[in-house]
Amino acid sequence: MIISKLKMHARIDDLVALRRLLPSNDFGCESALMTTKWFGYRFMSPVEAMNEFVRIYNVRLHRFLRFNADIEIAERVQGVRPGIPSKRSSVFTQLWRARQRADTLAVPYDILFDFGFEFASRRKRRWTPLPHQVFATETNHEVWCDKFVEFAEAHLDLYVRRLELPHYRMEHFRGLPAQEQFREVMNSELTFSLSTAVGFQARVAE
Questions:
Q1: Which of 22, 42, 97, 124 has the fewest CB atoms within 10 Å around its CB?
Q2: Which residue has the higher pLDDT, 105 or 190?
Q3: Host domain of residue 125
């Protein structure tokens, strides 16, 4: 069984809570994102993916600051507060939409944030971008996309090799879209083309 009954009930509870926190139009694309997000996140619920998105942002933010700014600054920076708020919050809605945009790119969140911080620093920004600021904008869309694909392709193979989830083992194979696509990646000598991500890059600047 891919998902236990206990976990399924927890996901239902999360969805009920989210219905009170987010506008209804922020749920429509979740089913489509299940076929575009990174393989390691495809069996996560949207809430689980959101928690992972925030956790990785904070980890990579502190790492970037330690190596590129100052250790004391890195220790003082709190990053993004994890968890689901008890009432509607514009910050949470902004984070949710940023996570959805990240899931169109078919890469681990680590790659997106590492690239986003590096891209911003090279453009002489005096602050590290927030999660919703690591994407392309109307003014830098073309160069951002070119550099992002180059950066991701240089790092993605390592993440594919490290990916170990029970969902992708032969004994759990059920012919699910995520499992089928992962099998194709394995059959292509562990190389993953970013062509699908490039196809979604038109959304990045929206």
A1: 124
A2: 105
A3: 5-203
